[in-house]
Amino acid sequence: MKKTAVLIVLLFSSSIHAQKFEGLALTPPMGWNSWNTFAVNIHEDMVKQIADIMVSSGMKDAGYEYVVVDDGWEAPSRDSSGNLVPDPNKFPHGMKALADYIHSKGLKFGIHNCAGNTTCNGFPGGRGHEYQDARLYASWGVDYLKYDWCDHGTADAHETYKTMGDALYAAKRPVVYSLCEWGSSKPWEWAKDVAHLWRTTGDITDCYNCQGEYDLGMRFVLKLQDGLEKYAGPDHWNDPDMLEVGNPGLSLTESRSHFSLWCMLAAPLMAGNDLRKMSPEVLSILTNKDALSIDQDKLGKQAYLYMDHLSKLIYVKELSDGSWAVCWHNTGDQPYIQRINWKHFTFLKGEFEIKDIWKNQVIGTTSKNIDVNIDSHDVLFYKLTPRK
Ligand code: GAL
Predict the structure, then answer these.
(1) Listed residue (112, 117, 54, 108) closest to 86, CA to CA
(2) Residue 97: what pLDDT?
(3) Whose alpha carbon is nearest atom 11 of ligand 1?
(4) What is the predicted pLDDT for the residue at 10?
């Protein structure tokens, strides 16, 4: 009887054991994705130009690596063998040629599809074709798969995403696997062994305070991350969705806040703007070294909300070298003036040097309280380093 019970447990645990390429996302993945600016209006020339600019602008050197083509790349149906086909008008040279181009720039290639029967825009989804699609992606040189959740019927998210994960693993080409089921089935509770990252909310849109039926302004996406910090770490990240930095619905201040807060959250950083039209100010936000080093810190801690009072949020993130990142954010319409009394930050043991990240300046130490003024929707973003 006992032996049977052990056998059942063993069988059960092996049936839910997922296979994943380990170590591909020890820090949050960085790159660019077509969706936030272009939706389905994509073309291989545009994607190649974006890859060129990722290199020439210095974004690649700053750590941006994946160029991801989102929904809209496919022809309306599979071919007679059941293979996915790229839209011949948008990608006349096919996806392998595009991947080769992106690889020739020292970058990596990502693609989107959906775990359901069709994508959210009605193109063929992967359901029932997982192993065939994974082999095709491997033959094209895909390095990153974003897998959506439209038209999934009554399918179980864990089972369905695991099937595609196993298929990718069986195809033997290492792929970062990015789940996009909008947090519906709490993937942070089960996806760690299946994928490298998982979306935690519905879609972000390029505004600060708005809320639609399916999309949310960055402020609302931010609030939905509270409490999820314990689920993130090297190779398994919460994904609060791609960046709207530099997109028209956010002011420059809001873009800077968005970027600072996503770095605090150890979020995957997928730029979502048209890099070809990016201003120097937007580029300098996306490539700020201190902000990126906080996002990419190898300890892999996601910031937690240390204080939430009226319109004031304070996030705190522990870093691998004994430093701390602290970010104040003003969600209100008026500036606020604040005295920072370092004694209230009880996690700080000893004296720390304060670097203001956006001023790019060391402004003193935690031995003295300071008065600050934070504009509406702005941040104060500090790195605190222990004094020797
Ligand atoms: C949504 C997803 C978006 C985008 C879109 C494409 O479900 O959250 O990021 O991929 O589908 O149709």
Answers:
(1) 112
(2) 98
(3) 120
(4) 45
Look at the pTM and tell me if it is higher than 0.90. yes
For residue 148, how far is its CA from the centre of ligand 1 (angstroms)? Answer: 6
Q: How far is CA 163 from the centre of its chain?
A: 22
Mean pLDDT over 9-22 rounds to 64
> Domain spanning 19-295 has what CATH number?
3.20.20.70
Sign of the C-alpha dihedral computed for residues 147, 150, 153 and 156 taken in this order: positive
Q: In the structure, which protein residues have their CB atom closer than 6 angstroms to any atom of ligand 1?
A: 35, 70-71, 112, 119-121, 148, 150, 180, 203
The answer, yes or no, to whether residue 85 has pLDDT greater than 90, is: yes
CA-202 nearest atom, ligand 1:
8
Any alpha helices (H) in the chain, and if so which ranges? Answer: 2-16, 35-38, 44-56, 59-62, 94-104, 130-140, 157-171, 218-223, 252-264, 280-286, 289-295
pLDDT one-digit tens code per residue, 123-182: 999 999 999 999 999 999 999 999 999 999 999 999 999 999 999 999 999 999 999 999
Would you tell me which CATH number, out of the four given (3.90.1150.10, 3.30.1320.10, 2.60.40.1180, 1.10.8.60), belongs to the domain 304-386?
A: 2.60.40.1180
Active site residues: 148, 203
* CA-closest residue to ligand 1 atom 9: 203
Among the atoms of ligand 1, which is closest to the Cα of residue 39? 6
